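Reading a protein record of the kind used here takes little practice once its layout is understood. An example of such a record is reproduced below.
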Amino acid sequence: MFKSIQSVSFVLLSFFALAFLLNGCEPVGEELQVGEANLRIINAAPEANEYSFFINDSLKTGQPLKFGEGSAYLKVSAGTNGVYTKLNDAIIPNTKISLFLQQETNYTLFLAGLASKDSLIYLSTLDNNKILSDTMATVRFINVAPDAKALNLVFQENLVDSVNVISGVNYRSSSVYIKIKPSNYFLRIKKTGGAEALANLDNYKLEAGKIYTFWAKGLISGSGAYALALKVLQDN
């Protein structure tokens, strides 16, 4: 039996624009939106539940998404959209939220937290699909590991030297996009201020002109399929 969710929060993050939408209210000062936006949906809640995601009462993800699964970018009406999530054909209590999307703009919507802890939460990020440099790779790091506090993502060209670090990314937060030299990297997730590697991704190739979103998947305290891992999304 699915345990009722007493409180589900919604966080909309952007480092270019920021708007909170609650109870169907549109942001103050926003003009009426026409056309479409692009929305990518990820199940980042580290439990066995499989979730279906609905936008304006329309199922957007086809089959329910298992933990770690996600959609490609989906066309969604620009403006204010009604969002909710279902488990076993039942709407999860209090998951109905309003999500404002700018036309011709890309977003990713993560479902994070733990249903068993009554802590499911949406995290929406504004995605960049414009190349910052045709000679550099562009990367960011998102922390959706529920039992993690601040995390660093370390890029190493060998197993000794750190050539670049994205530091201090808290749970339910994203770094800004940064430019990094194209190369093959050994990537490590570490606690901010810690030396131990909590998750590894070895010999990953970053290409010039490509945009990458790395995200922390799972639990520091998890094991097997729910252990902390580093996942990658291509933003262009």
